[in-house]
Amino acid sequence: MKHTAHLITFLLLLAQPSLAERIEHKGCYAEWDDKEITVGNSLTERKWAIDKGLLKAISLKDKKNDTEWLRQPGRQYAPHPGGGLAIEDRTLTFASLKGKQNPVEKDSLVVNLTAKGSINTLAYRFQIFPGSSSVTLQFFTDSGVVATEGEKSDRKQADGIEGPSTPKKRRVQPIEALEDLLLSPLHLRYTQVELKDQTDSYDELVFESTWLPLHDHFEVACNIFHIEDALTQQGLIFIKLGPLPHARPVKSTWDAKVAGGGRRVTFAGQGYPWTLITYSGGRPGRIAAIQDYQRCIREYQPHRDGMFLSNTWGDRSRDSRVNENFLLKEVEAGAQLGIDVVQVDDGWQAGKTGNSAFGKGAWGNFRSANPEFWKPHPERFPNGLKPLVDAAREKGMKFGLWFGPDAEKDMENWELDAKVLLGSFEKEGVEYVKIDAVEMKSLTAEANLNRFYNKVLNETNGRVVFDADATAGIRPGYFGSIHVGPIFLENRYTDWKKYWPHHTLRNLWTLSSYVDPVRLRMEFLNQTRNAEKYGNDPLAPACYPPDTLFATVMFSSPLGWFETSNLPENYFTTISPLVKAWKKEREAIFSGHIIPIGQAPDGYAWTGFSSTSKDRKSARIVVFRELNNKDTWSTEIPLLKNENATVTILGGKGSATYKNGNLKVKIPETLQYLFLHVASE
To answer: How far apart are CA 402 and CA 412, in angstroms?
Structure first.
């Protein structure tokens, strides 16, 4: 694999022999000699023995709770490539890096270890962030393990265009051991978290399977696997920083293997970085630790992230109305509603796509279909895009585009694609880009997609925000490209009776235990369109007040999936005050730990979200009463330390109190909400 070999070469050049045995940076530290390496901070510490350039885990400490998770060293070397590997003496070189590794990350400490032998060279990258109980690793080797062709998959994948698509081949990789952990606690609960994307085909997106094994042995595929001591509620979280199992260009048969009797856990997989995170405090503590880590990979910036974005595609006019005059109206209406970013979808460009209202065009093969594909449409935008960007800016808003990287020949045109977006940024000031049509069918395509993202981010100092569409195709998904921006999660339309507000709320609620909600672009629609298609269904979109619809997504990055200039007047009168209140609180919301509360939404639950400040003295809360016959509900607020506090109502209809550690709310009407601020008296 060429990109792996190139990276090893880079690390060899970077990693010069060093006399330093310890390095520190903002509370993080690493120390090493030719026998051991230790990486840690005030929250966590990991230690490995080094033998001929190969590692064995010998300690994994939760320093906050003074807990050692390993009872003895692992039984095998890990990381290990899984194929043949020469056992030979290797020369060790170390190098360290401090600070931001890219424009959107937080500061970190990175240590690169290269073990050079006469037959094989191994390279390890360790990364630790201040304030996160995580240690992230990546492993490279030049051992030449080759993927083999497997059986064809008989399942059709959604590709973003209506109609059938072709089955994909699966490739199977010899198992690469990432971790081999012999755990100390006796009473452990193991949980596999299976996530779904391709939301054009799936609506239920989170599945959890839990074991309390005595002697059970099992293997599971997943990106997240967590282990919790049932007695102490302390735990470990494994996250693989790659696409979901179905979308990886090279498959591995499992990601986590448990031998229950021996309390042995092995993590495996091909090529991707991974992290292990320690936590305490059960479910809320686990969610907080996961969010802290994701906000290290992409640091939350209030002026850039969590923006309220509009996109006209949800009203199904597609590209039929897209032109300068129409979008100027969108800018005017967006300012009235309180939108931050007005985004034009497919139709701004000269080329015609497979989803055009004017007949079928290209999909993925954009440049071969039209070399001028990504220039502004000369008739729809005779003055280019600058007048629209300027009009939005004058109203205090930003402007965004839809874009599809060229999929042909393993995305070999990635540099030309990056040049298009860099030109739009430099000449017009476009900072928000929805990325669609991605088909990441090979390791080369995956590497080129990452090069495309990173070039744009690096050359704009992280100012361009990508909304990565996860509705179809083979794409990085929730953990393949955390640093680029939010996940554009759903295409739901009232035209086909596919939009149900409680389903979108459910997806946000279930995903938020594992994906930081600010990383999810969640939609609400114009519920007056196609109301007749829902009949008398009490959960039909038209049954919800417009401000409730916004409230369902305001603890995420909200998406107005509609033509703002064609909204009914009551959207502006009911949503605008809530948007104004939300904007005053959103930095606190997205800086706190966002925990789903109540029951998972199903149309009949009491449900919601709490964002508790990191000092644990205040919280912003949204509570929903779905179709149930109880007008009062009470709950504890996760992580909040106050026993008694003042409750301020920021939006919605009802009342609330917080006493003796308990929030009690009253919402007289169904399908309504309360937006609250709870703080010390």
So the answer is: 20
Q: Is the dihedral of CA 475, 481, 484, 487 positive or negative?
A: positive
Q: What is the pLDDT of residues 584-593, one digit of tens each?
A: 999 999 999 9
CA distances from 361 to 276, 347, 370 (A): 45, 12, 10
Buried/exposed 378-411: b ≥16 CB within 10 Å, e otherwise: eebbeebbbbbbebbeeeebbbbbbbbbbbeebb
Shortest CA distance to 382 belongs to which of 323, 449, 307?
323
- Residue 57 has a pLDDT of 98
Instruction: With beta carbons less than 8 A apart as the criterion, state whether 175 and 82 touch.
Output: yes
What pTM did the predictor assign? 0.93
Round to whole Å and give the CA distance between 418 and 421: 5
Say how far apart CA 460 and CA 428 lie, in whole Å.
Answer: 13
Instruction: Find where tokens 């690096």 sit.
Output: 458
Which 3 state secondary structure label does DSSP give 515?
A: coil
SS3 633: strand
**CA-to-CA separations, 227 to 150, 215, 282, 675, in angstroms, rounded:** 32, 16, 10, 34
Residues 6+ positions from 146 with CB-CB distance below 8 Å: none
Per the prediction, the chain carries an average pLDDT of 93
**φ and ψ at 172, to 5 degrees?**
-110, 130
Task: Give the separation between CA 5 and CA 12, rounded to whole angstroms.
Answer: 11
Which is it for the CA torsion 77, 80, 84, 87, positive or negative? negative
3 state SS of 153: coil
